[in-house]
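Closing statement on the adenosine-5'-triphosphate sub-project.
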Amino acid sequence: MARLVLDQITREFGDFVATDRISLTIEDGDFLVLLGPSGCGKTTLLRMIAGLLEPTSGSIRIDDEDITALPARKRDLAMVFQSYALYPHLSVEKNLAFPLKARRTPKAEIETRVRAAAESVEIDHLLDRKPKELSGGQRQRVAVARALVREPKAFLMDEPLSNLDAKLRTATRRELAALHRKLGATFVYVTHDQIEAMTMATRIALLNGGRIEQYGTPEELYDAPSSVFAAGFIGSPAMNLLNASLTTTDGKITVLAPGVEAVLWEGATAERDIVIGVRPEHLSMHAGGAPEAVPTAGVALRGTVDLVENLGREQLVHCIVGEDRVTVSCPREERWSAGDLVVLAAPVARVHLFDRASGRRLEWRADAADDAAAPNGADASIASPVSSAAPAALAASAGPAVR
Ligand SMILES: Nc1ncnc2c1ncn2[C@@H]1O[C@H](COP(=O)(O)OP(=O)(O)OP(=O)(O)O)[C@@H](O)[C@H]1O
Ligand SMILES: [Mg+2]
């Protein structure tokens, strides 16, 4: 059982800052996923938690004990590597027993704990085999079992599924999530795969260039990405993002961009450059001439179908709107072909706005004092009088909310 607190963790390699003042609290029992593109500092951060790499500055605590200077073997954390790091000349049983022998655990206890760990990941029938006689998935389970036998305070995993084929990865993903529920232990899991993050995490820390871009539940990151980066990184196919400007027309907040018509909320705003975002599954497609397709509060994009991709369960329709490409995910029953003139529509609750210069999410607040108002719902904010919606009410959301 462990609560991990990272406080202002910075790691430099020469002039290069690999992690930049990262503060993060991982609650006991959380499945925290460190997510982000290659090179963003995930492994560096995990290695510092494990004690395999020293931070340049900052501190790490486990359950209020400062462990920043404690060597790895004294941290009581188990690490599972991408490469599994099994001893090739030892049987599965001996691989599992190794960390316990190293701690001079009594023989009978080693036997019980090895068997229990092997059973929990269903490799108890493989105990006599050598690693080379196992499949990738089985090796991966041995690596997890070897972490389990130690009964550590927390499990640290660095892309443990990346060597598995797609089918096995899906199955092992479920097993790991089930194991986490069963053990109730703290997991810190590194991946660049947003599907792994979305399916397993209780909390995600999205990293970008050594900093935390956004921290929250998978739902929070998906439904309210805090920046253009987060919006583009989470979701497949990715959120459509178009450059536009925001202005006020007839007491309503509207959007200007080629091919874009959007009337969002009643109110007023200073003109500003923005990025408007809509997920592919939130756009509905209509034939080009259909005026009823344009929502009274929402966005309508006028364009031309460029390409239709059949994914089996659904289709992706790629369209050209102005100079941008916009993807719609829609049922295959809808018949679209290249060259069709179309209107793509989404209600205001599905529209995301970002400040173009900073990339940060913009929240619509009908009443600047009312923290709850948001673009995602609340009719009151749309219907509110212009006077209560001062320009300042369209505020950049706060930086990454980190516990
Ligand atoms: N020992 C080192 N010396 C110099 N630079 C390093 C060292 N270790 C990591 N880096 C740099 O720090 C940055 C972060 O590396 P890190 O391995 O943490 O990335 P990552 O997010 O795990 O990426 P990936 O998804 O590719 O594994 C990279 O730019 C990397 O080149
Ligand atoms: Mg890495």
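The radius of gyration is 25 Å. With this model delivered, the sub-project is considered complete and its resources will be redirected to Aim 3.
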